[in-house]
Amino acid sequence: MNDLEVRQLRYFVAVAEELHFGRAADRLAMAQPALSRAIRHLERQLGATLLERTTRQVSLTAAGLVLLRDARTALEAVTAAAHRTRQAGSLSPRLRIALKADIDGGLLPRILDAYGADSAALPPQLILGAFGEQPQALRDGRADVALLLHPFDDRGLDSEPLLTEPLLAALAAADPLAARTHLCLADLDGRQLIGGSSAGRSQPAGFHHDPPLPDHEQGPSGAHKSSSNPARPAANLSEIFSLVETGSVVFFAPESVAQRYPRPGIAYRPVDDLPDTTLAVAWPQDARSPAVAAFVRAACTVATTAHAQTAPVMHSATT
């Protein structure tokens, strides 16, 4: 059997994720007949049927599921090799830090100060992204280290917890529930979260997002299937706050975010049966960079100091 090519794996992953040759061809910017021929050639090369095709649908066989898992890993490794090689060969290398804006527990400035004092430090570069993007950025080499909330996809990653804090429900100040001092998830049943899921039926473990869905509950390319009348996705805190203030959605924010962004149109309320959230620092398991080690040391030291100095819960965040 001839060795597989990266191009073949990309073709197969596109079809396997879309489960539709037309959409996959569009995604790959190629003609559908050429893509179909390439997949048939791949099946002959491997001696295995990867896809079941009918006039109505395309589905993965057992062999296809195995190849999809391993092909994703292989493509991640190829992409990571390119990104990391460029970084290593750069005339001005930097430590690339992935995070969601404002999701740092208020620790990032102090971490950067402590990190900058280490002799192994490189100039930092912040890689801002949406929720859930940070683990993939580490795996594919776009970032060297990340600050992110549990739970996350930790395949191939090491991590250390930094800070655990309560999650608060952000409601419109005019919402009748805002008159209460404490809530439970059942009180929020039927309310919409950012992304469209029901607040009362989910068990969120992070800021305005739901835990990842199993593969069979995701749409094309891993996108979540939306519920009926889903809330419009919001790109940043300003948009989220606007949606909350109008009563369109509720969202769950770490206490540090609530303290940083008090707004007269929003009431933050504790939810008694909502788990706390934990901020972590994460990095690739095979990382050997002294700068990564310096950043992790700085993050853990700052978090330990912050924990020792933490005052009781600030009630101003919930009034």
Structure summarized in a few sentences:
This protein is of the alpha+beta class.
Explain what this protein looks like in three dimensions:
This protein is α+β, with helices and mostly antiparallel strands and 319 residues long. It folds into three domains: 6-83, Winged helix-like DNA-binding domain superfamily/Winged helix DNA-binding domain (Arc Repressor Mutant, subunit A), CATH 1.10.10; 92-165 and 277-318, D-Maltodextrin-Binding Protein, domain 2 (3-Layer(aba) Sandwich), CATH 3.40.190.10; 167-270, D-Maltodextrin-Binding Protein, domain 2 (3-Layer(aba) Sandwich), CATH 3.40.190. The protein is built from nine helices and ten strands. The protein has helices at 6-18, 21-28, 32-46, 62-89, 108-116, 133-139, 237-245, 255-260, 290-309, and strands spanning 51-53, 58-60, 95-99, 124-128, 145-149, 157-165, 167-172, 251-254, 266-270, 277-284. Helix 1 (6-18) packs across helix 4 (62-89) and helix 5 (108-116) crosses helix 9. 34% of the residues are buried. Residues 201-232 and 311-316 have low confidence and may be disordered.
